[in-house]
Amino acid sequence: MTATPETLAAVLIAAGALVAALRLLWRRRDARAAALAVLSLASGALLYLALFPPHLPVGGETLVVATAETPAGTRAGPGEKLVALPEAPALAGAERVPDLATALRRHRQVQRLRIVGRGLVARDREADAGLPVSFSPLPDLRGLVRLDPPADTPAGSVFALAGEAAGLAGGTAELLDPAGRRVDSRAIAPDGAFTLGSTARAPGLAFFTLRLRGADRKIVSDTPVPLRTLEAPEPLRVLLVGAPSPEAKYLRRWAEDSGIDLQSRLEAGGGVDLGDAGVRLDAATLRDLDVAIIDDRSLLAMGSGARATLASAVAGGLGVVIRMTAPATAASRESWRGLGLAVEGGGEVAAVSLPPLAADAEALAVQRGPGPEDVPAELNSFEDPAPELGSWQLRGGPALVPAVRDADGALLAGWQPRGQGRVAIWTLANSFALVLNGQAERYFQWWSDTVSAVARAEGAFRPDLPPLVYEGERIAICGLAGPARVTGADGKTVALVLDPDAGSRGCAAFWPQQAGVHGIAEDGRKDGGSFAFAVLPKGAVAGITARETAMATRRWAAAQSGQHDGEVPERRGPGWPWWLGCLLVSAALWFLERLWLARRDPT
User: Fold this and answer.
1) Residues 6+ apart with CB under 8 A from 270
2) Is the Cα torsion angle 294, 330, 419, 396 positive or negative in sign?
3) Homologous superfamily, domain 150-232
4) Residue 365 and residue 528: Cα distance in Å, rounded?
5) Lowest-confidence segment of 62-66, 104-108, 478-482, 550-554 by average pLDDT
6) What is the tally of helices (H) and strands (E) in the chain?
7) Where does CATH 2.60.40.10 sit in the chain?
8) Of residues 407, 356, 406, the one with CA closest to residue 382
9) Is residue 132 a contact partner of residue 113, using CB atoms and an 8 Å limit?
10) Strand order from edge to edge, sheet including 182-187
11) At CA 256, angle to CA 251 and CA 258, rounded to 5?
12) Rounded to the nearest 10 degrees, what angle do helices 576-597 and 31-51 cross at?
C-alpha cells in the first residue's frame, strides 16, 4: 500500500510530538512536566490540522439551468445560480452559456442541478453531470405529441399509423392522401390516442397529411407523414431437403399459404426422390436460393464435397435452417460447425412452454376470422389444451442469436452469421403437432420468423435510419458499407464520415439543415441506387420534439440522481484558524518550558 502525503505527515508529526512529550516526562515527573507534555501533543495535532484542514460540506448551492420555453419570470432564489442555454429565452439575471458542460466548469462549487423549461437537448445529455438533478417538465403542447409512422409497406397493402394528441378531447384525427383527399377519420380517445390507416398505392416515397381537429371542428395542426411504398417483392425461394415426414408435409403447406416459392428434395431411400423433379444441390442451384431447410440426418449423410459447396453458398449470402430430428451427436455438431454453427449440447429434451394464442375466446375468434361453414365452431376452440412439445437443449453462447423463444424465454430456434449468410438451428421435435392441435397460426409464425431471420439479404441499398427525422436534429445513419454522401432537398451534397467506434454497423452522423426529401448514396455501388428519406420541418412537429426532449431529460435526470444520490460534495476548510492555534500553543509551550525548566531545582 502506498503511503499518502497525509499519512506520512501524520506519522512524522505524531512521532515528533510523542518523543518531545516523553522527553519532558523523563526529565521531571510532576504536574508541570505533564502539562508541558500535553501542550507538545496538542501542538503536533494543530500542526497536522493546519497542513491538512478537515473537509467541510459545500454550502448547498444549486445551479438552475434554463432551457427552451423557460417562463419569463424565472429567477434565481437564495443559494442558486441561474444560467441560460442557447435554447432559452432572454431572462433577467441569467448567465448565458453555450452548453451545460461549460456551465458546470464555471460553477464547480454547485451541489445540485435544477432543470427548468422543456428540457435538455441531445448535446447536453451526453455527459455525466456528476451531481443530483431535478427536472419537472412543462405540460404538453396542445396538438400532436406522439407519432408512430407507418412502416414500409408493399404496394397494394394496408398501412397504419398511430399517435397521441394533447388537449384535444372530443376532437378528430384525419388522414389525407398526397392529393389532399381524406382517406380516414377517427375520433380521438379520451386519453388522446388514435389510429388511422389506408392503402399504399404507387411505389416510392409519398407524403400523407395527419390533420387534427378540436371539438369545435377547427383545424389544430397539419403534420406531414412520410410513407415508403415498396414494389411487390419477389417470393422467397426456399429449398426443402430431407426425408418424407409429417414435418415436411406441413412445411410445404406453410410455404404455399405464405406465397413462398418452395422446391423440395425428399429422398425416401433406394434412389427414390418424392420431391420436385430435377432439383440438384449444386452451386448454381444454391446461388438462386434464399433459404435452404435441411434436416440434420440429410446434412450428415452428404459427402464432404456437397457440404463444402453448401458452406461456400452460406458465405456468399445463402440462409440455411438445420432442422433437428434426433439428439445431437458429436458428428452432427461437427457437420453444423462446418457451415458456421458452433453449438454444444443437444442431447437432452425440455418441455416447451406455450403462451395463450389470444387473451380470450372472443379475441381468438376475431384473430382467426370467419371459418369454413362445414367446420364446427367448437373445433379448435380457446379451451382446447395446448400440445405437449419438446425441444433439444443447445448451448451457443452470445454468438447464437435467438429467432424464436417459448413463453419462458427458452430458445427454440437461433442463428449465427457465416460470411454474408446465416445458419439457423431448429430445435423443436415434431413441431407439426401444433397444426394438428389447432395452432397452425403459431406454427406458421415460428417458421416465418426463423426463415426471415436467415433469408438472403436484399440487394437494394437500405440503410438504417430513425422512423422520423427532424430538421436540425442529429441522426445516425447505419448500415453503410463504405463512404457515402447525402444529397439535400436543395441539391447540395454532404459527405458522410463513418464512425470508427461503430465497427461493423457502419454508422455516420448527419445533421439535416432543411426539410424535404433527401437521398443517401454509397460510393462505388454498381447499381448506382440511392435511398430517399424525408426530413420533417421543425415547426410541424414541435409538440413531438417537446415531449421527446422532456422524456429524455427525465431519464437522464433519474440516472444522474441515482448515481450521485446522497453524495455531498466536500472541500477543505480554511487553514488559518489551525495555524493560529498552533502558533499560540507553541508559544505557550516555549514560554512555560523556559519558565519552569530553565532554572535548576534548588534541592
Assistant:
1) none
2) positive
3) Immunoglobulins (2.60.40.10)
4) 48
5) 478-482
6) 14, 32
7) 150-232, 475-535
8) 356
9) yes
10) 153-154, 219-230, 204-213, 172-176, 182-187
11) 95
12) 160
Determine phi and psi for 37, rounding to 5 degrees: -65, -40
Domain 237-371+387-454 top-level CATH class: alpha beta
pLDDT in tens, 330-357: 999 999 999 989 999 988 889 888 876 6
Strand partners, 163: 147, 194
User: CA nearest 451: which of 260, 244, 230?
Assistant: 260
Phi and psi (nearest 5°) for 568? -105, 115
Helix (H), strand (E) at residue 390? strand 390-395
Comparing CA positions, the residue from 273, 271, 266, 259 lying closest to residue 240 is 266
Count Cβ atoms below 10 Å from residue 438 Cβ, excluding itself. 18
Architecture of domain 62-140+545-571: 3-Layer(aba) Sandwich (3.40)
In angstroms, the CA 565 to CA 557 distance is: 11
Q: Supply 9's cell numbers.
A: 505527515
DSSP assignment letter at 299: H
> What is the chain's alpha carbon radius of gyration, rounded to the nearest angstrom?
37
- Where, residue-wise, is CATH 3.40.50.880 in the chain? 237-371+387-454
Residue 28 is placed in which grid cell?
Answer: 521531571
- pTM score over 0.85: no
In contact, 428 and 470? CB cutoff 8 Å:
no
Strand duo 143-148 + 158-166: pairing = antiparallel
**Helix (H) / strand (E) containing 47:** helix 31-51
Residue 160, C-beta contacts closer than 8 angstroms, at least 6 positions apart: 150, 195, 196, 197
Q: What is the pLDDT of residue 427?
A: 92
CATH superfamily, with its number, for domain 475-535:
Immunoglobulins (2.60.40.10)
Q: Which residues pair with 238 in a beta bridge?
A: 262, 291
Residues contacting residue 272 through CB under 8 Å, at least 6 positions apart: none
**272-295 pLDDT, tens digit each:** 666 666 677 788 888 888 999 999
Neighbours of 215 (CB within 10 A): 11
Distances (CA, A) of 591 to 34, 557, 578, 596: 15, 60, 20, 9
Say if residues 83 and 74 touch (Cβ distance below 8 Å): no
Side chain identity, residue 270: G
